[in-house]
Amino acid sequence: MSTLPLPPLTAVRAFEAAARHGNFTKAGEELGMTQAAVSYQIKVLEDRVGTPLFVRRPRQVTLTETGQRLAPAVSDAFERLAAAYADARGTMEGSLNISTAQTFAANWLVENLDKFQALYPALSVRMESTQRLAAFEEEGVDVAIRGGVGPWPGLARHLLMMADFSPMLSPRLAESAGMPNSPEDLLRLTILEPGDNWWSIWLEAHGVAFDARKHEPSAELGAQSMVARAAIAGRGVAILTPALYRVELENGLLIQPFPRLCSDGSGYWLVYPEGRANAPKVKAFRDWILKAVAEDVRSVSG
After folding, report:
1. Is the residue at 196 inside a domain?
2. Of 34, 88, 238, 257, which one is least surrounded by beta carbons within 10 A?
3. Residue 208 phi, psi dihedral angles, 5° rounding
4. Which helix (H) or strand (E) segment is 148 a member of?
5. What positions does the domain HTH lysR-type occupy (predicted)?
6. Among candidate residues 283, 275, 282, 280, the one with its CA nearest the CA of residue 19
7. Domain closes at, from 43, 71, 86
């Protein structure tokens, strides 16, 4: 049985580190090699491939088109090898870096991530909540949770939950201003984030015309989780995703006066580079979160 030709492992390791750091010196520091040694190993690999893998610039290198095709497969291979080694030892080790939308982080992931950590105690989980889109390679992000519709080029995506929405307010506001008995009653209350198109979608679906210009603009709070905090404090009525505020609704911090939900097609998605689908830690997190969110959504709708 013939074997496939493989390049020298040292050269492949140097390539993977240099591609990840975008810098030969930093790659050398990680691998315990000099910059010159890294450069030599990259040249060895380029000779084997038959084409340049990097464009050399002062203090920085960037991948060529061939390098961009090779880098994800090499990273995936090293990660799978490391995971197989850890599995042989009975553990899944290393780190899992998660970039997540702030609202999903605050209202679901923070409350449930310990369950995943309990399954993989040797896997160090690092989470950053942000509104910007993570750059996977440059920032060392393994998986991300994004709000929106997608698709995102080069990324595999899995729908976690739809971001369906409905107005909510605090019991304090309902007591002081009166509980809204019809959708029209909402217009006499302070509307938080009136420029959010969710308001016009929901109200018009209930036959109520809505002009955001007729409502005094509130401070722009950005993330939905911040708008929810303002609603809980009694500052006005907010339009939120009930699936993310189950605890607040159950504990009486928020009231959803009308049962109907509306949608603009957006949701929360688990995404990661297409070439990393079989990476063991990505697969472990994907399998866990898809099942956990589905169970949560069923319990809310049930």
Report:
1. yes
2. 88
3. -115, 120
4. strand 143-148
5. 7-64
6. 275
7. 86
Query: Do 87 and 279 form a contact (C-beta atoms < 8 A)?
Result: no
Q: What is the pLDDT of residues 43-61, one digit of tens each?
A: 999 999 999 999 988 778 8
What residue numbers bound the domain in which 65 lies? 9-86
CA nearest neighbour of 255 among 204, 208, 185: 185
Q: What is the pTM for the complete model shown?
A: 0.69
What tens digit of pLDDT does each residue of 173-209 get?
Answer: 999 988 999 999 999 999 999 888 899 999 999 999 8
Sign of torsion over alpha carbons 123, 150, 156, 136: negative
For the record, the structure tokens of 102 come out as 């702030």
- 181 assigned to some structural domain: yes
Question: Is 103 a member of any domain?
Answer: yes
Q: What pLDDT, on the 0 to 100 scale, is given for residue 1?
A: 42
Give the tokens for residue 80. 């799978």
Using DSSP's 3-state secondary structure scheme, residue 234 falls into coil
Question: Could you tell me the CATH number of the domain that includes residue 285?
Answer: 3.40.190.10
Look at residue 260 and tell me if it is in a domain: no
Distance CA 10, CA 16 (A): 10
